[in-house]
Amino acid sequence: MIKKLSLISLFTLLPASYYFAQTTVFAYVKDQDGKPLERAEVDLAQSTDDVTADKIGYFQFTDLQPGHYLITVTKPNFDSKILEFDVIADEKRKDLGVITLNYNLGTDAGVVVIDDSASDTEDGGSAMQPTVGLLSSGRDAFQNVSAFELGAYWFRPRGVDNRFEDVVFNGVPMSKNDDGRIDFSNWGGLNDVMRYPYENVDNITPSEYTFGNLGGVAYYNTRASSYRKQTSLAYSFTNRSYMQRAMATYSSGITKNGWAFTFSGSRRWGDRAILDGVYQDAYAYFASVEKKFSDRHSINFTGFGSPTYRASNAPNTQEVYDIMGKNYNSYWGWQDGEKRNSRIRKVFEPMFMLTDYLKIGKNSNWINTVSYQIGSDARSRLDWFHGADPNPTYYRKLPSYGIYTEDEFRQNAQINWTSLYNANKLNLTDMNGDARGAVYTVVEDVNRDKTFNFASHFDTRLNDNWKLNINFNYQNLKSDNFRRVKDLLGANFANNLNAFDNDIRYNIDDPNVQVKEGDRTQYSYELTKNQYSLNISSEIDYNKWNVMASIFSSYSESQREGDFRSFRFQNNSKGKSAIYDALDSGIKGRITYKINGKNFIVYSGAFFSLAPTFNEIYINPRVVDYVTPGVKNQMINSNELSYILRGQILKLRLSGFYTTINNATEISRYYADVNNPTGASLSTLVNEAMTGVNKRYIGAELGFDVKITPTLNAIGVASVGEYKYTNNPNVATFDDINEFRGSNVWGKTNIKDYKVAGTPQKAFSLGLKYNSPKYWWVGASANYLMDQYLDLSALNKTPYMYTNPLNGDPYDGVTPELIQQITAQKKFDDQFMLNANAGKSFLLGKYRMGVSISVNNILNNRNYVTGGFEQGRNVSFPDALADAQRATPHFGPKLWYDRGTTFFTNVYLRF
């Protein structure tokens, strides 16, 4: 009796679930082509224990009690899907079948590239550089919006520019050694094969494949078998930097004998975009061939390149825009009935890579890549010898100077190619019949790099929850830099003489000063660099915690070798310089606390050094091997704290960040045309260096994606930051005539609390997107951009500007109020932008077709300044005050404006 009562009591106390048969629910996740989707995330609303699909797309939930359930299936670059189902009593297994996720048509590419033609100018000393978002269409709303909505207006998350972003192909870094930035034109037009990074980490989050920088890492794996088997054809029509684009891509998948092939090609062309005189003709090719020897070993060859021919557009002063309109471009003129642009960038730098993939044991992988990149980057411009400046916007030709009226300026607002040819024709011989050189020529500044890389990546699982990564990189670079004559414009030869310095020879070792088309002129030198770097990272995952740490060390040797011997710098211009070596190191870490399956708190921190680039090491490498005074490794300290919510209805990230950059070097190069009372001339090309620059970036980010209905989402982003200089750094200049001028001449530049330019420091976006179950979508976003500032010039912020060199005292009339008025940093007006996009896909048997259109700046707002810089000419108080008091300054800032309404349409066919 007692035993019976005990059994009854026991069953009474047991949970009710024991009375029912518990159920296992399972399914397979595949893409619309039937390929399994590995690592798709499956979120069960009634549980905090989410699951991830395995290599064949399989997932399951066990021990589910009877009831109604809802799951959300998501994967980056695919539209998410919500599925509801019921579990009934006595149902041991429930098969949900195949869950198909459709490719996300809302983006054209895994990266969004902002047209970078503005960076081709040499008119100013600006550090402005267009931003490139490294962000793919993943789950983070802030990443998506900052790349594809705000990024179209040069918004840079956290104020970080291209210099601090990393793109890596199979372990090989793609940043350029001259300025540290990424040249996306090396693979422009290869959207199909560069669409989705294999790994994409934002900001200072540690990467498995490299240490990274401040702005995140995009790691691309170009393995042929990693591309889904299909053929893709696409055509695009746009009015941005080109008009038309055609692409074709083929991927074979793994064949029976272990081969895989992926090929892609494209062309982008057009000459009727918004800005006058801008045209482009660019091709691109990609080939990846893999041989799989076994399940553990394969070798892959990759080759890609993008030969590009592109015309540039000029920045202008506000006076010029007011007269000519915001589509005006001074770089072109008519020649024989056709538009000819003087600023042409012609770049082709193909890369070839061989990658070995080896699986060691059950838990280890070893990937080794060797690569070689060769090619040239040539940028043309007009040059003149004892002639008038042919630039139509030269300040003496502007109506404010008083020579031309506005109507006369309009009549002469483009380059007069005929007059340049005529000037050379009249100068073919002198009165004695002796040959004379060209007055006007078109020259090209050429950079020819030969870069060898070796990259090795090893990863292993030390335990089920513990992963270790080791990365080693070696790079050898030889960079040939020179100016050559591209077009003599009807002349017989050009003179390799410095017209701004008493016609002295640019190369005193060569008595022949006559140069023909294709010959080197004015400067020629080679830069070499050897760099070794080691990175080790590890990640440990616990039930409630995830910890990742990464360390690195790097050593580099840089050297200049000049080909020309300068008259003024005979011992420091030709031959090899001393070696400049640099040692870097750093640490990164990330700690994630899992409150539950949907709520997380994440801290990330980084402290590391960054060696100077070629442009920062050598203040004027074209002439001399002098190292920039005070150049040092930058010291970077960055911290961020985030709260992340990954719910079915609401996905949200709220982050705060604090970053300091110390000991930075900023180089500006521009032409100065000023004489001071002592008679010292600055009428020459000036190389200006600020060293010991300290900056602070502080702010907060909010991104959310809320599902209003199963098909309607609201996406919002807010970025509030303050990015400013926090000290008064040293400033030095170097020019061919006056050589070095340091703190003894200029003093420190007073820029403390000036704002870092190049991006809106505050930005907001709110959008709606409707995804129809019938495979069409439409979306719109409202964007508000605030606190955009003009890039500063350092010299007019120094004591030299207001100090009379005749007596060392301030100029008469100098007051703190006037100095503040003259040197105040310009803040541009806040702007509102409206974007929209739409698309639809069709399934036609085995063919899938898609069409999409995106429109930016629907309201055609032409008042938004995307970038600009102060001209560095007014470096004395009398000149600066006189210019500031003019109704229209002679040397107002140079600006770029937004292009107004732009569109991009795309249609594709895949099978």
Short description:
With 911 residues, the protein is mainly β. The protein has two domains: 23-103, Carboxypeptidase-like, regulatory domain (Immunoglobulin-like); 132-910, TonB-dependent receptor, beta-barrel domain (Maltoporin, Chain A, Beta Barrel), CATH 2.40.170.
Keywords:
911 residues, mainly beta, Immunoglobulin-like, 2 domains, four-stranded antiparallel sheet, 10 helices, disordered N terminus, signal, TonB-dependent receptor, Beta-barrel_TonB_sf, CarboxyPept-like_regulatory
Please tell me about this protein's structure:
The chain has 911 residues and is mostly beta strands. It folds into two domains: 81 residues, Carboxypeptidase-like, regulatory domain (Immunoglobulin-like); 779 residues, Maltoporin, Chain A (Beta Barrel). A hairpin with a 3-residue loop joins strand 31 and strand 32. 44% of the residues are buried. The longest helix has 12 residues. 8% of the residues lie in helices and 48% in strands. This is TonB-dependent receptor.
